[in-house]
Amino acid sequence: MINSKQIIVATIITLFSYGMNSIALAKSGHRSMNSNDSSETKIEEEKPKSSTHNKSHWGYEGSEGPDEWAGLSPDYHLCKIGTRQSPIDITQTQRANLGSINFNYKAGPKEIINNGHTIQVNMHKGSYITVSGKQYKLLQFHFHSPSEHTIDGKPADMVAHFVHQARDGELGVVGVLFKACEENNTISQLWRKLPSKAGKKNKLSRKINVLNMLPRNRGYYNYSGSLTTPPCSEGVNWMVLRNTVPVSDAQVKAFTDIFAKSVRPVQEKHHRVVKTRN
What are phi and psi of 76, to 5 degrees? Predict the structure, then answer.
């Protein structure tokens, strides 16, 4: 027969066990909450991976080439579905009352860089163009060979893209076409500091006058397009100068020896009108 002492002891043991189980459950619940927090933190930590993916490496051939750009990152979707893409083949044009491009390139170049895709020249602040009353500050210019835009299906031997930006964020790119025939003095000055390895850069003299890279007659083709590299952003005001400037075969080869491929194929026009100023 169970006496009163045994009942009291049993009751104490039961209460103690219940208390320990409650503590265990509480700890378990706390761990579970922490586990959920940890899971959420992991999701947050995974966001930079997406950001890294958005900056996926791209190139000009194979699995990283132009046909594959859109699949390398969600940020590059316009490279496939955009309807105002560049470059294009300039064929039929429409004469228009376009404003002249007023070049004010007083500030000299700052440095020449091999960015892994092309040779780029960064500029000191202070240079700009004005078109129909709108000012675009010159940021940099870079090269491709052959030219990305073609005229009646034919590319130039090389091109320089002068990249400008207006206050409202619009990009204005001036394309200068080069024809291989004789040495270009300004290119010679730039190529003396030509960096052959990706990531390398060299300082340039402010005395180099980049205006000398432009043709005397600055009539141009004009249309709305895009960047010719990922992310292929649209809304770029393209101004491709109609007249070429000279460059030597050796100067072109100095560039293509570093970048054998640097050209995106021409894109569909999608009924865009190319205007021209003679």
Answer: -100, 15
Task: Give the active site residues.
Answer: 117
Q: What is the CATH number of domain 62-277?
A: 3.10.200.10
SS3 239: strand
Q: Which one, of 225, 221, 252, 231, lies nearest residue 94 by Cα?
A: 221
Domain boundaries, the chain: 1-54, 62-277
Tens digits of residue pLDDT in 135-194: 999 999 999 999 999 999 999 999 999 999 999 999 999 999 999 999 999 999 999 999
Percent of the chain with pLDDT over 90: 78
User: Which residue has tokens 């060979």?
Assistant: 145
Distance CA 277, CA 255 (A): 30
Is the separation of the CB atoms in 258 and 196 below 8 Å?
yes
CB 238 within 8 A of CB 225: yes
* Cα–Cα distance for residue pair 261/116, rounded to 1 Å: 11
- Strand ranges, E, within 124-203: 128-131, 134-144, 150-151, 154-155, 158-166, 171-180, 201-203
Return the SS3 of 210: helix
Query: Nearest-CA neighbor of 190 among 177, 180, 204?
Result: 204
251's CB contacts (< 8 A; 6+ apart) are 158, 183, 184, 187, 188, 191
For residue range 65-109, list pLDDT tens digits in order: 999 999 999 999 999 999 999 999 999 999 999 999 999 998 899
> 74 CB contacts (<8 Å, ≥6 apart)?
53, 54
Residue 55 banded pLDDT, cuts 50, 70, 90 = low
